[in-house]
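Sanity check record (used in CI):
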Amino acid sequence: MMAQSNMFTVADVLSQDELRKKLYQTFKDRGILDTLKSTEV
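Expected output for OFD1 centriole and centriolar satellite protein:
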């Protein structure tokens, strides 16, 4: 019963992980991560 009420399936989690990796790579390519790191200091 609990598993059915869970919003996330295994496929959803995997796809989210892939999206997260793609977003990270995109930010990295654009140099946004470097900008964020420099503002933290």
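Residues 10-30 form the longest helix (21 residues). If this sentence no longer matches the regenerated tokens, the check is flagged for review.
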